[in-house]
Amino acid sequence: EATSQSYSRCLELMLTHVARHGPMCHLMVASHNEESVRQATKRMWELGIPLDGTVCFGQLLGMCDHVSLALGM
Length: 73
What we know:
- By secondary structure, the protein is mainly α.
- The chain has one domain (2-72).
- Helix content is 58%, strand content 11%.
- Strands 1-2 form a two-stranded parallel sheet.
- Helix 2 links the parallel strand 1 and strand 2.
- Helix 1 (2-21) runs parallel beside helix 2.
């Protein structure tokens, strides 16, 4: 639980930084945790971060393919 909370805090910090500094900053969200990915996409929308590759998502090949599929849609 502490690891998830720490990841969430870091994700919030970095997404806010990306939103403020635009194209000067890029972020790779690497997680196979569905809730973390959902949190990131929701927060991107709230902060107005465009879907232009400024924030990318990655995970180990074969881990939670359903999460990757949902991101691709």
